[in-house]
Amino acid sequence: MESIRYGCASSSKSFDVIGFGALNVDKLFKVKRVAGVDDESYIIEIREESGGSAANTIVGLARAGLKTGFIGKVGDDREGRKLIRDLKKEGVDVSNIVVERGVKSGIALCFFDDKGHRTIYVMPGANDYLNVNDINLEYASRARILHITSFIGDAPLNVQRTLLEHLPGSVRVSLDPGAIYAQKGLSHIEPLIRHTNILLLNHEELRMLTGKASIEEGVNTMLSLGVDIVAVKLGEKGCFVANGYQRYYVEPYK
After folding, report:
1. Where are the beta strands (DSSP E) in 181-224?
2. Residue 155 CB burial class (10 angstroms; 0-12, 13-18, ≥19)
3. Quick check: helix, strand or coil at residue 225?
4. Residue 196 in contact with residue 175, Cβ under 8 Å?
5. Domains along the sequence of the chain with CATH
6. Where does the chain show beta strands of DSSP type E?
7. Dihedral sign, CA of 217, 218, 219, 224?
8. Entry pTM
9. Which residues on neighbouring strands pair with residue 133, listed in sequence order?
10. H or E element: which one contains 58?
C-alpha cells in the first residue's frame, strides 16, 4: 500500500474545512447558442475565473467566516499563479497546494447560452500529476471536515482513497462526487464513499451510482455503505436530506 507524507504540522484542529479536489482556471464563453455536432455559433463574451468544485466551496466557506485550507496541485504558469493568488485573496490557506514544474495548470473551457445550455471541456493538466508524496497527513488531520471533490484521472482518485485510509477518525469527510465521479460508477468510488460522513450529490448522480430511480431507494443504498448523512440536491425544488433515522425535504434558499 502506498504511504503518504508525514509533516511537522500541529495535530490541533486549525481549520474548519480543508478542500481537496481539482484546481482549474475556467475560461467562460457566453455564446449565442451552444452548437451541436457539425454546427456553428458565435461567442458574445469571454471571461476567466478561478474554479474547481472544491475550490468554489472553500471560497464560499471562507467568505462565511470559516477557517479554510486547500490540498491540490497547479502548474508553474500564469494560470497556476492565478489560482493560488485568488485563493489567498479569499483568506484560504494555500501552503499545501503543490506547484509542478514544467506542467500546465488545469483548464476548463465552458460554453453557455441564455437558455441555460452549456458544454464543458476539461484539460486536467497538473491535477493528473498529483501523487501521494504531495499529501501531508498532518495538514489534512488539522481539519474538522475534509471536503473532497472530483478529479478527471484515476491517479488522483487513488491518492484521495489512500489519504482517507490514513485519516484519523476525528476528521469528518464530506464528498461531492459530481458527474465525473458518478460516471465512473459505484465500484470506482465506493472506497471513498465508505470513508464518507456527509455525501452531497444531485438526483442524476445518485441514479448513476446506485441504479435507483427513486431518491429514497438510492439514499438507502448510500446509507448502507456507512454514510452518516446524504443530501440530494434538487435544484429549484430544494434538497432531500437523510440519515439513518430522519428524512427531510428542505426548501430552496430564496
Report:
1. 198-202
2. middle
3. coil
4. yes
5. 15-23+52-105+126-250 (3.40.1190.20)
6. 15-20, 24-31, 43-51, 68-75, 93-100, 106-112, 118-123, 143-149, 172-176, 198-202, 229-233, 239-242, 247-250
7. positive
8. 0.91
9. none
10. helix 53-63
Q: How far, in Å, CA of 120 to CA of 116, rounded?
A: 13
Closest C-alpha to 131, from 73, 179, 84: 73
Q: Residue 69 has which C-alpha cell?
A: 485550507
Give the Cα separation of 6 and 136 in Å (integer): 5
Cell numbers for 12: 490541533
What is the distance between the alpha carbons of residues 201 and 204, in angstroms, rounded to a whole number?
8
CA-nearest of 56, 24, 233 to 120 is: 24
Strand partners, 145: 17, 172
Q: Per residue in 126-164, pLDDT tens?
A: 999 999 999 999 999 999 999 999 999 999 999 999 999
184 alpha carbon, distance to own chain's centre: 15
End-to-end CA distance of the chain: 47
Mind listing the pLDDT tens digit for each residue in 192-225? 999 999 999 999 999 999 999 999 999 999 999 9
Going by the DSSP 8-state scheme, the letter that residue 195 receives in this structure is: T
**Which grid coordinates are listed for 254?**
430564496
The set of cell numbers assigned to 140 is 489534512
C-alpha 60/C-alpha 252 separation (Å) is 17
| Maximum distance among all Cα pairs of the chain, rounded to whole angstroms | 56
**What grid cell was written down for 46?**
469571454
